[in-house]
Amino acid sequence: xxxxxxxxxxxxxSKSFVLGKGILSLILFMSSGLFLILGIFLFPFLFVxxxxxxxxxxxxxxxxxxxxxxxDYKHNWTVQxxxxxx
Length: 86
Description:
The chain is 37% helix and 12% strand. The chain has one domain (16-77). By secondary structure, the protein is an alpha+beta fold.
């Protein structure tokens, strides 16, 4: 099991997934291709495609925490680091 996985803190559901930089970068990359195709038919979309393409390569270097998302109720949260007590 993934060591980053944890149940939803609100509803306790075990159906959750991690939205990290890799997935976000892939979504932006695929969106840039979609906007490029749409730009053939609707000219203004052609200007959005290079911006999304550029952002898809910048996202992995930005500092932000991974988000956990509950698939049942769409809650999202970040995992807080637990400090071990002595």
